[in-house]
Known about the structure:
Layout: H1 10-13, H2 36-63, H3 67-86, H4 88-91
Amino acid sequence: MATAATPMKSAAKGISADAKPFDWEDPFFLDDQLTEEEIAIRDAARDYCQDKLMPRVLEANRHEWPMGLCRRLWDFLAEVAEQRRQSPAHLSR
């Protein structure tokens, strides 16, 4: 997903007029420091994750709930509700 670069306000910040525009995808210009081999490795890893892993992650999130987390959340909410029932402000209603 490519985004349009935003030009820097060079005069106000004291940055030279030939400064590169800000790139939200690569704000530290790390891609410029990679070798061709490193770029190939990065792209291969990204493609693998998108093609093989992402569909499994999406499918798991659609059908499998983290039941341990749900139980802890339920226990917490039950405890909060019990404390609220016992609070002086609640009892005075």
